[in-house]
Write a structure and sequence with these properties.
- The protein has helices spanning about 10-145, 150-160.
- The longest helix has about 140 residues, at about 10-145.
- By secondary structure, the chain is mainly alpha-helical.
Length: about 170
Amino acid sequence: MPQLEFGNPLIIAQIVWLLIIFGVLYFVLSTYALPRVAEVLEDRRRRIEGDLEAAQAAKAEADAAIAAYREASAKARAEAQAAIAEAMQSAQAETTARADALAARLAKQIDEAEARIGRARDAAMGALRQVSTETADALLVRLTGRSDQAALGAAVDRALAVRGQG
C-alpha cells in the first residue's frame, strides 16, 4: 500500500501538513466555533430551565387557585345549605303558627256554633213542650170538657223524655 510506505519523502511531508492543518483546524474550532456552540447550548439550557421554573410556578399558582376555588365552593355550598335550612325552619314555624291560629279560631267558632245550637235546641224544646201541652190541653178540653195543666205537663215531659227530646 502506497499510503503506508514511510520510506517515501512525500509521505512524511503529507503527515506534517496533516498535523499542521489538524492543529490549525483544532485551534480555530476551539477558539471560535466551539465557544459559540457552547454559548448557544448554554443559552438553550438556561432558557429551558427558566421555562421549567415558570411552568412549575404557574402550576403552583394553578394548584393554589384550584384549592381556593374548592374552598370557596365548599364554603358557598355550606352557606347555601344553612340558608335553605333556616328558610325551611322559618317557613315551618310560620306555617305552624298560622295553623295554630286557624285551629284556635276554628275551635272558637265551633264552640260558638255549639252554644247557638244548644240555645236553639233549648228554645225549640221549650216551644215543643209548650205546643205539645197546649195541643193536648185543647184536645182534652174538647173531649172531656175539663183541663188539668199539671197532669198534662207531666205527661208531655214523660213522652218527650221517652223520645230523648226532654
